[in-house]
Specification:
alpha/beta, 7 strands, Spore Coat Polysaccharide Biosynthesis Protein SpsA, Chain A, seven-stranded mixed beta sheet
Length: about 230
């Protein structure tokens, strides 16, 4: 039964005071025996204070004194995880914890070491930016070329891992370049990687979306770095 499966969910937070409480509630009610690890990455909008007041036996909060980036927050969260399966959950409402049930299947039956939740495999999604979609597909294509994978959504914010495997990777990227780094290093380590379709409720920039074209350029450069120089 899912309720007997132990998972750790790592949530990096940067200025998400309007959504973090709802996200934590959804994760706690995802149907698994879950521990929630929240890492506040130097928020200035009240997220930090909200988490400092939060008391729940299955939620642990950690804090960066200053903003270090998503990758740095995830590394701290991964190190704190105790359960055999580790999920990444963004602190906004774009990704749905109910999709954990689909994502964990290849991990539980031993087929996979890592699972990507793909926004481009046919799951329901909010229709938004064409050029953002094109940028995502280009970055994934470039990643596939250099890593010899056939992912549809390398940049997805919902990923799951076997903790034992995850802890063997030496990760160093501090910011959004975490995504190309872990993909390159998982491919190099010959991990068994699966994708499953997930739902996606994308935000507009007015609603708080943070990823922009500069991040796409940084991701492209990171893909080349981790392939040829790292």
């Amino acid at each position: 039964m899912d309720s007997a499966v132990k998972i750790s969910v790592v949530i990096p937070v940067y200025n998400e005071v309007n959504t973090i409480g709802t996200v934590i509630d959804r994760v706690l009610n995802c149907g698994f025996d879950v521990e929630v690890i929240v890492v506040d990455d130097g928020s200035t909008d009240g997220s930090r204070e909200f988490l400092q007041r939060l008391e729940h036996p299955r939620v642990r909060a950690f804090f960066h004194a200053r903003n270090k980036g998503k990758g740095a927050a995830l590394r701290l969260g991964f190190a704190a995880a105790r359960n055999p399966y580790v999920f990444i959950q963004d602190a906004d409402l774009e990704y749905d914890p109910r999709d954990y049930h689909k994502m964990i299947e290849p991990l539980l039956d031993g087929r996979a070491d890592m699972v990507y939740g793909s926004r481009f495999l046919g799951g329901p999604h909010r229709v938004l930016f064409f050029w953002h979609y094109v940028g995502n597909r280009f970055i994934t294509l470039l990643s596939n070329v250099v890593s010899d994978l056939n992912l549809t959504d390398m940049e997805t914010g919902m990923k799951a891992f076997v903790r034992e495997k995850l802890m063997r990777l030496k990760l160093s990227a501090d910011r959004f370049t975490f995504e190309p780094e872990i993909t390159a290093k998982a491919a190099r380590a010959k991990w068994r990687i699966y994708e499953v379709p997930i739902s996606y409720s994308g935000r507009t920039y007015e609603e708080g979306k943070k990823i922009g074209w500069r991040d796409a350029v940084a991701a492209a450069l990171a893909i080349l770095y981790y392939r040829f120089w790292d």
